[in-house]
Structures are given as C-alpha cells and as structure tokens.
Design a protein that fits this description.
386 residues, three-stranded mixed β-sheet, globular, alpha/beta, seven-stranded mixed β-sheet
Length: 386
Amino acid sequence: MSLTILSFLGAAWWLLAIGLFLLSLACGLIQPRVQGRRARACATPPVTAILPVKHLDAGFATTQGSIFAQAYPDYDVLVSAAETRSPALDAMRAIASAHPERNCRFLHSQANFAVSPKLNNIAAPLAQARCDLVMTKDSNVALAPDAMAAFVRNLTPGVGLVVGVPVAFGPQTYAARIEASILNAHARLLLSASTLGAGFGVGKAMLFRRSDLERLGGVSALAGNLAEDTALAEGFAQLGLKTVFAHRTLRQEIGARSLDDVFQRQARWAVIRRANVATYALEPMASPLPAAAAAALAAPLVGLSPGAGFGLTFVGWFCAETAFAALKGWEISPWSPLAYAGREILALAAWLRGFATHQVVWADRRFDARVGPFAPGPGASRGEKV
C-alpha cells in the first residue's frame, strides 16, 4: 500500500513538473513577440548609463565596449569603481578612449553605507547622473546595439524597472559549461515569467528613473539588502510600479571557471534567494532530476521499470531543452549532455546549501543574507566575482 501511495505521489509530481516545463518552453519561445508588443513607449529621453567596474571579466572589451555602440540618440556613460587603479579600470579607460564621440566620465566611489558592494559602487554615479533615466550594466554582459532603445520602449506608464534576461555564451571549461547550463535554464524560466506578465529584479542590466528611486527614499532605502536588484523591484512595487523583462536578452560572457567558483557562486545566490524569495522551497519543481526521480516512483503504474521512467524523463528533458536552445540561437556543444548532468547535481547541492546557512562571502566580507555584514575576521575567506 505504501509503495502504491509513493507511486501516485510520484505521478502527481511528474505531471506537474512536466506541465510547468512544457509551459516554460512555449512561453520562452514567444516572449520576444509578446513583450515586444507591450513595449509601447515612443519617447527617447536622454539616458545616463552607469557601469560599475571591479573585475576584469571574460570578454571585458566586448561587454564594456557594447555600451558605446548603442543605436540611441542621446546618452552618456559614467564608470564607477571603489579603486583608483586596477587592471579592469585600465582596460575600461582604453575602451572609453577608443570612443571619443561618447561623453564618458570616471568616478571614484567611496561609499560604504550599503550591505551590497555593488550598491556602494553605483551610489556616486547615481548622485551625479545627468539624466533622470539611468541604465546600469554589469561588466560581464554585452548589449546588442538596439538594447538601450528596447529597454526604454518597455518603460511604459506603470512600469518602474526594466531588466534584462542574461543568456550564457563562451564557456571555456567544463565547470563554466555547467554554469552556462544553469544560467540558461534560469533564462528560460525568466522569459516564461515575462510572457505571463511577471517581473523580478535581475541586476545584470536595469533601467529606471532616478525620480522614482528618490520617491522610494533614495539608495539608502536599499542599503540593508544584499540583493539590491530584488530590493529595488520590491520598493517600486510599493509605489505601484511594475518590474518587466525587456524583449531583448543580454549576452553574458562566461569564460573559464572552476567547479569551486561555480558552486560557491551558486550557493551564495541560493542563500540570498532563500532570504528574499518566498517560493524558494519550490525551486526543485523546475528541475529534471527530481522529476526523473518522481518518474521512477510512478513508472510501475504504467508498466515501466523505475530505471526506464527515470531515464526517459531525464533524457527527454535534455532533448527538449536542447531543441529550445537551438530555436533561440543559444550555444550548444558536444559538452552539453555532460554539462546538463553536472548542472543538476551542482544545482541541487547549492539549493540544499541555502537551507544550511544564512552566511555568504562577497567582496572580501562576510554577510548574513537576512541582516547585513559581519565585521571581517581572520577566518573570513575571500569573495569571488560578482
């Protein structure tokens, strides 16, 4: 009797997981068309683009150079860093000097009021921005030439924040391919949420009005949250303003990563999501490994062996993801099956890590994701790339 109950529970999980997966595939494919129709803002007000600089990320020249190639009539660029000299700043100055036609200023950010290192970095340019409309961009994502225009088109009445969905490109190691697989699975889910009218704070590239931020209380209103992008979206929601995903994705350069780099980064974000996202416990519903385990439990109900149920679900999910990536023009390689399998193991471990601690290490400081930073001590480990 107990085995029968487990089989029916497995069948229920499998049906729900597969149903959500198929919905995400369909919604992810049509997102550009659906969201593009919603993007009806016609004005092209001036924009200040803010680029916080910390690390010399993979593809830095391409990703940072993309801001200077925007097909937009009026915008300027502010580059901000906590350091006065660094390899990343030297590279950024070389990129800016190659585009003398674009007004670009460098600012030294000395703020230390916020839990988020990134928020401290962009505080100075936010205060000195020429325009009310500001667009922030991380140094490891590249914008298509029409991206800024597309973001502005999405800033319709009632919208306070426009964000982009990052899609992984250019992994150079097996661990990097695992992270690329994780990011692109997330991208599919975010595109699906966008099609269904939902929006979340994703900070790789964001467009908003400074005047709306001031109504919220300024950057100090976000100071207590590690996930400043989530805090910004939630704050705008309190003002009655929505967050939407643009109908143009972002190209995130992955480069070379180690397994430890990938796990520590994914575990860090798992801890932060658990502290900020109410549905964190339900995340395995969107993963093939639990669905395959559920299929193994349910398989006897349809005359299959548990191994067949597991294998058909796990392999079938991968094939469907691969077809989706091909239709979207995302990277596929002979490593994709191994990256997919590694992704499921690492992602599950990182998700479980989210329940084991509230502490994360970021930019050489230890934080409690619910509260704020700890004072640095001799046992604190070094942070990794943002």
